[in-house]
Design brief:
single chain; 321 residues; alpha/beta; five-stranded mixed beta sheet; three-stranded antiparallel beta sheet; 10 helices; rod-shaped
C-alpha cells in the first residue's frame, strides 16, 4: 500500500512543474524529490513526468495519478478533521437510556448541561428494555445506560433481590464498565391529608392495611421481603401504574401510598409528602453502564463526569414536605 508522503510529492511536482520548486515547498532536497518520483514510476510501471530542459511536464498517466492523489489526500484530511471533531466533542452523537425515575430530573438536567457545553454533539434518549438493561450497551445500541442494582440482578433472572455489593462478578459484564453514582434512599409518599403525614418518620408497622401502588421495574416497590418484614406482612398492592405522574395522582387522590427513590424526589407533587421510614428500607445503588475505558468515546466520558457531579449533588436533597 502506498504511503501518503510520496503522494504529496507527486501532487506538488504536478502543481509546480519543477522538482526543485516542489522540493522548496516541501522542505526537501531536489534529489530527494527526484528519487520519490522515480520510485513511483517504477512502482506504477509508467512515466509520470517528462523531463524538460527547464522543469518537468506531467504525462497523461502523471496527470491522472496527481488528480487521484489529490483526492486521496483530501479524503484523508477530511477523515482527520471529522475524527478530531469527535475527540474534541464538536461533533458526533451520544445515545442514552435510563429508568423512569432517573428521567424525571437527573437525565434531563444532564442533557441540558451537556448540550450547553457541547452543542455539536447530538443527544438522544432511547427507550430501554426493562428485562435486559445491559444488553443495549453490550450490543452497541446505546452508548450509556443508567441502571439500578435491582436491574443487575433481574438481568441474571435472580430468584431474589438480596444485594451483596461485593458480588458484582455475578453479573455478566463482558466489555462493560459499571460506575457507581449514588445510593438511593426509599421514602414513603403520602397524601398531604394522610393521618401519618405530620410524623417526621413513619413506622411501617402503622400501615398494615394500607393499599400500596406498584410500578414498573425498577421503579417499583423493589425487594418485597424487606418491605413485608417491616410491615408485618406482605404489602396489599391495589394499583399498578408505570407512569410517575399517574402514581402520584393515585397517591394524591388517597388511593394508596408508594415508595419514592432519591432521584424522583425533585419531581414530587406539592400535595404529597415524603417521609423516611422506620425501619429504613434497603437503599438501592444506581450505576452508569458504558463500554470499558479503552473503548469509550470521549462524549461518553464527558457525560459520565457530568452525571457523577449531578449525582453527588443529589445524594442528600432537601426533604419534601
Amino acid at each position: 500500500m502506498l504511503e501518503t508522503w510520496p503522494l504529496r510529492v507527486l501532487v506538488e511536482v504536478d502543481r509546480r512543474g519543477s522538482f526543485s520548486a516542489a522540493a522548496e515547498a516541501l522542505a526537501m532536497t531536489q534529489p530527494a524529490v527526484s528519487r520519490q518520483i522515480a520510485a513511483l514510476e517504477r512502482r506504477f510501471g509508467v512515466p509520470l513526468f517528462r523531463r524538460l530542459p527547464r522543469g518537468v511536464r506531467s504525462t497523461a498517466a502523471g496527470a491522472e495519478a496527481a488528480r487521484l492523489a489529490r483526492d486521496v489526500l483530501d479524503r484523508l484530511l477530511t477523515m482527520e478533521s471529522r475524527l478530531a471533531a469527535y475527540a474534541e466533542l464538536t461533533s458526533g452523537e451520544l445515545r442514552l437510556c435510563a429508568f423512569p425515575s432517573a428521567n424525571t430530573f437527573l437525565v434531563p438536567e444532564a442533557i441540558r448541561r451537556f448540550s450547553a457545553a457541547h452543542p455539536g454533539v447530538t443527544l438522544s434518549l432511547v427507550q430501554r428494555d426493562p428485562a435486559r438493561p445491559l444488553a443495549a450497551v453490550r450490543d452497541g445500541m446505546v452508548d450509556l445506560a443508567l441502571v439500578t442494582e435491582w436491574d443487575l440482578y433481574a438481568d441474571r433472572h435472580a430468584a431474589k433481590y438480596a444485594v451483596d455489593r461485593s458480588g458484582l462478578d455475578w453479573v455478566p459484564l463482558d466489555g462493560l464498565d459499571l460506575v457507581p453514582l449514588l445510593d438511593e434512599e426509599l421514602q414513603l409518599a403520602l397524601p398531604a391529608g394522610h393521618r401519618l403525614a405530620r410524623q417526621a418518620r413513619v413506622r411501617l408497622r402503622e400501615l398494615p392495611d394500607e393499599v400500596w401502588i406498584e410500578g414498573a421495574h425498577p421503579d417499583c416497590l423493589g425487594p418485597i421481603p424487606p418491605l413485608a418484614d417491616a410491615l408485618g406482612g406482605p404489602p396489599r398492592i391495589g394499583f399498578t401504574c408505570d407512569d410517575w405522574h399517574g402514581k402520584q395522582a393515585l397517591v394524591a387522590a388517597g388511593a394508596g401510598v408508594m415508595l419514592v427513590p432519591t432521584l424522583a424526589r425533585p419531581a414530587i407533587r406539592h400535595d404529597l409528602v415524603l417521609r423516611p421510614t422506620s425501619p429504613v428500607l434497603p437503599a438501592r445503588r444506581v450505576y452508569a453502564v458504558s463500554a470499558t475505558a479503552r473503548s469509550r468515546a470521549p462524549a461518553v466520558a464527558a457525560m459520565l463526569t457530568l452525571l457523577a457531579g449531578l449525582a453527588a449533588a443529589d445524594r442528600d436533597p432537601p426533604a419534601h414536605s
